[in-house]
Amino acid sequence: MWYTHLMQPAVLLFHNIMAHFAEIEQKTDPTGFTTDTQWVVKRVIVVDNGISTSNGPLVDNDMHVDGETWCKTFFNGGEWKQTSYHSNFRNIYAGIGYVYDFEKDIFIQKQPFASWTLDADNRWQPPVATPPDFVGDNYQIAAEWDEDNQRWIIEDYEVNPDSFILRIWDPATSSWTT
Predict the structure, then answer these.
(1) Beta strands 56-57 and 106-108, pairing class
(2) How far apart are CA 63 and CA 115, in angstroms?
(3) pLDDT band at 106; cut points 50, 70, 90
(4) Res 5 pLDDT > 70
(5) Beta strand 79-83 with 99-101: parallel, antiparallel or unpaired?
(6) pTM above 0.70, yes or no
(7) Contact yes or no for 11/18 (Cβ under 8 A)
(8) Residue of 23, 24, 57, 167 with fewest CB within 10 Å of its CB?
(9) Which letter, b or e, does each residue of 149-175 get, where b requires 16 or more Cβ atoms within 10 Å of its Cβ?
(10) Which residues of 133-148 are buried (b: 16+ CB within 10 A; e: fewer)?
């Protein structure tokens, strides 16, 4: 029995008795930042953890090749990798558009911006550290990355709903400026 990732509420109820697999396919960098070919997650499915492997049931054998083989057989092909709902292996739970790195045997989120780099923990980091949220009198606004200008900004509509105040993070003073 299998379920698509689109049935997420059902998946949440059964995630302890089900195994999750990501179908990956080779594509040119989906972000368009490079012309590199990457293994990109096409879909994530859920299967019964009772699938037999050569070492016993799948529930006792995470990342066993027999689980991937079962998916290939059931879905008539494709390249499959098991992913952990709780991120217990392969770095993070795979999502559509994420990248699978064969050398590291991990899933990585899609690169959000061309200027961001992957750190030692395989997390994307901006060239300027993420600032704290802007806190007004009775409100709080999260910063947005401005790729064109390589800075953090906030469009603050709280003072005047018809126009906004552009607030820019100044890393030198660790404060928001207008």
Answers:
(1) unpaired
(2) 33
(3) very high
(4) no
(5) unpaired
(6) yes
(7) yes
(8) 57
(9) eebbbbebeeeeeeeeeebbbeeeeee
(10) ebeeeeeebebebeee
